[in-house]
Amino acid sequence: MDTMSRMKELIAVLKEASKAYYAEDREIISNFEYDKLYDELESLEKATGVVLAGSPTVSVGYEAVDELPKERHEKPMLSLGKTKSREELRDWLLDKKGLLSWKLDGLTIVLTYRNGELFKAVTRGNGEVGEVITGNARTFVNLPLSIPYQGELILRGEAIITYEDFEKINEKIEDVDARYKNPRNLCSGSVRQLNNEITAQRNVRFFAFSLVKADGVDFENSRQNQFLFLKDQGFEIVDYKLVDKDTVISAVEEYEERVKSYTVPSDGLVLTYDDIEYGQSLGTTAKFPRDSIAFKWADEVAETTLLEMEWSASRTGLINPVAIFEPVELEGTTVSRASVHNVSIVKALKLGIGDRITVYKANMIIPQIAENLTQSDTLEIPSVCPVCGGEARINQVNDVQSLYCMNPDCDAKKIKSFTLFVSRDAMNIDGLSEATLEKFLAKGFLHRNADLFHLDRFRDEIVQMEGFGEKSYQNLIASIEKARNTTLPRLIYSLGIPNIGIANAKMICREYKNNLDKMIHASVEELSAMDGIGEVIAAAFRDFFAQEKNRENLQALLQEVSIEEEVFEEGEKSLSGKVFVITGSLNHFENRNALKDEIERLGGKVTGSVTGKTTCLINNDFASASSKNKKAKELQVPIVTEEDFMREYLQMQP
Fold first, then answer.
1. What per-residue confidence (pLDDT) applies to 398?
2. Between 1.10.1740.10, 1.10.150.20, 2.170.16.10, 3.10.290.10, what CATH number should domain 488-563 receive?
């Protein structure tokens, strides 16, 4: 492969990894592999003098998602240059003094205060455009909402969730597959919630690390004085040390020892010149500011032997590879297992049993395979599922190959089916976590959904199970009895029909006025003729009920539940034929789903994107730079506030 082709390949891989990490809160390659590929690309660019459009060495981050209003930063938020060499860090500092601080591993936030009050909070986003999360920031447990300084104050910092809180939150999630992989992912999802009640439950903390603007304050040309000023305003500031070329290496060693027990996630250190004017005089590169540099921990790497590859089936049918190797000591603990994530990575590493491999802990926490020294490439990918023995097949999604169980009756998939059935939007049965359902399935209590309504047959066994007693058993039975009274859309959704969410279930039930017989015998042509039900959804609905076992499952459920009667008004409803899009936060409705339900009740339709058919966009922030606002303005679709919508369309006084 020639150099230019290799550069293009590297850019594609790095951009996809960056998108997954920054926009979707998941990892498709390890930090070790990302840094390795990034360094290779950077060296090729230096050697050729060519930097291709879209290269991550000149672009910053990835586009912010659309769910929250977007806003452009007054000053671009650049990434930092990095090194793993203590000597390079010392040489960079020259004869200047610097501030050495933690590089926290969370989500970067820009805060603006005006007249002593929190005015705005925006995420880093792609460095130029971020998401407005002001309401969520107000729930950060240590963030001052009012400060003494009355001018405009702009600062940057990191929102984080401590390891202690991360473990507490994960412990409450009994389904192992649903647990968060690391504190950063949990924090990112928590900070960007649409409902700030959820953010408030996550104990998000904020640590200030940079002052951008505070007019009228004399900091005597010192970054340290800026830190002290922020501390006086009530902010928790990132822990730092004042260092020079003689003390910086020993300070790094001290931090390296502390990180092993530090409760706040950190993936390195940051060194910044204390002399503000000197730092600013250096300017920036296309990507990096020259007044700061990041120090990344040099991962402790150990060599070991791959003993076996364990294939672990999940509730979604995905079969994950987990490497088992001879135990080694890493960062003070013994490790013998590491997730390999997917088949693509297995193939890229050219693994084989008995191969000599090197392993490390990503961010000193998560065991990963760094390299395969042998590269025998002899590992066989299983053709059967380890749970049910059914066919296992490799599927490719977005250039990533993964192994899936193809047996629809696999026990791992049964757990998913039952989990959906008892979920809030379906039958809403409390007391049945995935772990509990798994135990019930293993004991043979459950074979089809209707069996849940007869768990009383196994009372004596259930009350003796770990985590159960008479009281929890009675609570479970009471919740099951309550679930016997339900609506037809809930029942349809609970069946787990592919592509049928609760909104589609409501739409189909309303179209057929809850005539179940007509619904399950409807043709693809009839169903797809409905506004909002395309051919794919229609075919999935028809194919599901074409299977006898699914019809039998439904008939068994109908013997157990009572369907609430619904009155369908004849004639056109007040919002019939109208299409709405809802974005941003609401003040009068509990959440967007509540407003959506009201619109649908009156015959209207709610979609996720603005088109020429949209009646209006409901958004309390008319000035938002969100993509939905821009699209509405381009198409001349009216943007109305929640209150205006209530008056004009719902005939309600807010």
1. 67
2. 1.10.150.20
Sign of the C-alpha dihedral computed for residues 433, 188, 587 and 487 taken in this order: negative
Q: Are strands 356-362 and 302-313 parallel, antiparallel or unpaired?
A: antiparallel
Say which CATH topology domain 70-296 has. Answer: D-amino Acid Aminotransferase; Chain A, domain 1 (3.30.470)
* Adjacent-strand bridge partners of 289: 284
Give the separation between CA 476 and CA 455, rounded to whole angstroms.
9
Taking the alpha carbons at both ends of the chain, their separation in whole angstroms is 65
CATH assignment of 411-483, among 1.10.150.20, 2.110.10.10, 3.40.640.10, 2.60.40.10: 1.10.150.20
**CA 341 from centre of chain:** 17
Task: Give the CB-side neighbour count of residue 28, counting CA atoms within 13 A.
Answer: 19
Distance CA 499, CA 537 (A): 6
Following DSSP, what letter does each residue of 520-539 receive, concatenated?
HT--HHHHHTSTT--HHHHH
Q: Name the residues annotated as catalytic.
A: 103
CA distances 289 to 108, 137, 140, 178, 284, Å, are 16, 27, 29, 38, 4
Rg (CA), the chain: 28
Q: What is the pLDDT of residues 297-315, one digit of tens each?
A: 767 788 999 999 999 876 5
Q: Where are the beta strands (DSSP E) in 385-465?
A: 392-397, 400-405
pLDDT digits (tens, 9 = 90+) for 62-97: 444 456 788 888 777 887 888 888 898 999 999 999
pLDDT reported for residue 62: 42
Q: Tokens 């939905």 identify what position?
A: 628
Mean pLDDT of the chain: 85
| The predicted structure's pLDDT at residue 613 | 83
Summarised one tens digit per residue, pLDDT across range 435-460 is 888 888 878 888 889 999 999 999 99
Q: How far is CA 120 from the centre of its chain?
A: 23
Question: What confidence tier does 21 reach under pLDDT thresholds 50, 70, 90?
Answer: low
What is the C-alpha separation between 77 and 129, in angstroms, rounded? Answer: 9
